[in-house]
Write a structure and sequence with these properties.
7 strands
Length: 88
């Protein structure tokens, strides 16, 4: 499916267990492959994340569905924010 990146900006991100994560603020592109490699998520649920930065980068491999909202896998790793680097 082809879509414009601007169509995901502002979408809310939830885990597949219904936990609000945040809102999409930007996209991370793989310039070499010409693909979307992640999404920059801000307006974070502060009950899940204790960060000093503006948000996190969610790897696209964690995304399971994109529509009116974005669904990502609910994993302890994702929620613990071990693999999602902070976004300054």
């Amino acid at each position: 499916m082809d879509a414009e990146i601007s169509s995901i900006l502002g979408l809310e991100v939830y885990t597949d267990r219904g936990v609000f994560v945040g809102k999409v603020e930007d996209a991370v592109l793989d310039a070499d492959g010409g693909t979307l490699s992640g999404i920059a998520v801000g307006s974070l649920n502060r009950e899940l994340f204790d960060l000093k930065g503006k948000g996190i980068i969610v790897p696209f491999r964690w995304i399971t569905a994109v529509g009116d909202i974005i669904i990502m896998r609910h994993t302890k790793r994702a929620i613990a924010n071990k693999d999602a680097p902070p976004r300054e």
